[in-house]
Structure formats: structure tokens, C-alpha cells
């Protein structure tokens, strides 16, 4: 590849470097940059998040996000994901 030197200047991640050195398509399914993808919010999860927010937003002295995380039916959501989704909604 005559233009490989340009790619060497713009590495994006260790997975991209590995793919460049071992050959394109060398990454197995579930490896590299795509493995940590956040699952999208379903409409049911969004509705549940809205309901939980309205339920806990008026509670004095309590962390609203912590209360929502404790009640969220889908495990594995992080505090950052919940906050980001609430802002988006």
C-alpha cells in the first residue's frame, strides 16, 4: 500500500494499530473499538426513565440519579449514560 505512511500518522486506537500491523479484517467479532458500544435506549426504557425522573426529582436531600439507577429495570447502565439520556430527553 503506497499510502500506508499517511495512516501511520493518524492512528486512532490500539485496535486500529493492531489491524494495520496484522492486516485489515484481522480483528475478531467483538474486539477492538466496537466492543464497548453502548446499547441504544429502547422506547420502553426511555419511558421508564421519564417516569422515574418525575418520581424522584422532587425528593429533597436525595441524589436523583442514584435513585433512578437503583430502580432502573435494565442493569448495566452507568450514571453518565443516564444523565446523558435525561439531558437528551
Describe the structure.
The structure is a single chain. The protein is mainly alpha-helical and 89 residues long. It has one domain (14-30, 38-88). The protein is 53% helix and 0% strand. The protein has helices spanning 4-9, 14-22, 43-56, 64-71, 79-88. Helix 3 packs across helix 4 (64-71). The radius of gyration is 20 Å and the shape is elongated. The termini are far apart. The model is unreliable at 29-35 (pLDDT under 50). This is TIM protein.
Broad shape? elongated
Q: Summarize the biggest pleated sheet.
A: none
Count of DSSP strands? 0
Structural class: mainly alpha
Strand fraction equals: under 5%
Helix content: 40-55%
Mean pLDDT: 78
List low-confidence stretches. 29-35
Q: Element order, helices and strands?
A: HHHHH
Count of DSSP H/I helices: 5
Provide the domain count.
Answer: 1
First and last CA, distance? 46 Å
**Compute the gyration radius: what is it?**
20 Å
Amino acid at each position: 500500500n503506497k499510502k500506508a505512511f499517511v495512516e501511520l500518522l493518524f492512528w486512532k486506537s490500539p485496535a486500529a494499530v493492531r489491524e494495520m500491523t496484522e492486516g485489515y479484517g484481522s480483528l475478531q467479532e467483538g474486539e477492538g473499538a466496537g466492543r464497548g458500544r453502548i446499547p441504544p435506549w429502547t422506547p420502553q426504557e426511555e419511558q421508564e426513565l421519564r417516569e422515574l425522573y418525575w418520581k424522584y426529582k422532587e425528593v429533597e436531600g436525595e441524589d436523583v440519579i442514584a435513585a433512578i439507577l437503583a430502580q432502573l429495570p435494565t442493569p448495566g447502565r452507568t450514571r453518565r449514560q443516564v444523565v446523558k439520556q435525561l439531558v437528551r430527553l
